[in-house]
């Protein structure tokens, strides 16, 4: 019979009591004003992201799925892992391709998904515990940039960080994150890193500006989160969604632009914002990579690159890096 998953909650379920307040205070006083993307993933945001992964324009999901379908067995063998940790796991949909390969190899004993979205994580953990009886499922409700020290210890671990989520981090944040991860892994442990690759601006912009408007709603939901969690009075309809490709930084930059002069009060953060017409709030960046840049960032952090897999169209890369 399936074992019940264990769930450790490291994030305060009352977001307003935790780092949301500091993140909002710091981010919204910068220029451009910025909101950290992890707060996009309330229940609604997680649902919307799930919808994004099924959009025809959102190629990263399909490209990474194709790599995993083709190469999961090789990845599993190359890692030699007995514990799979997944950071920013969400629904863990693609991870099942890895779990299936791990099950056929017979080597996996434990799966530890980590995500900020508690309900999404609990649902995914239940489904996986059911589907893979005998697997210990140890879920962690947490932030992968803050709670790395709580990851399960022992065995040979592979940390999967899929979907291109590392592209949400700025260079300095990536350096800190990869360095901290390398420091806590033991020799033989590995990181499986999914990164979206640089490609034509048209294809990129289409992926973040879908015809059905799902991405627009996903980005706009950040204001709904602040209204609910911090008692803010943003009028989400007074903003327009502006996604653009920054060719110099090689990243997508997703912003909300104030279409009218407005005063917004964020009582839970003790802030009053006066926004002028055209003023923008950056809600998310999504950095795109070149294979050489991924390798050098990993090596700088203390990893050795074992192998890189890409899809046939070279849209996305999975890199296995070993400590
Ligand atoms: C979950 C961060 C990988 O950057 O492509 C998708 C989030 N934002 N559409 C990405 C996202 C808008 C996604 N990541």
From TrEMBL:
The keyword Flavoprotein does not apply. Pfam families: Methyltransf_33 (PF10017). Its EC number is 2.1.1.44. Keywords: Methyltransferase, Transferase. Gene3D superfamilies: Vaccinia Virus protein VP39. One of its GO terms (biological process) is methylation. The gene is egtD. It comes from the Bacteria. This is L-histidine N(Alpha)-methyltransferase. Residues 22-322 form the Histidine-specific methyltransferase SAM-dependent domain. One of its GO terms (molecular function) is L-histidine N(alpha)-methyltransferase activity.
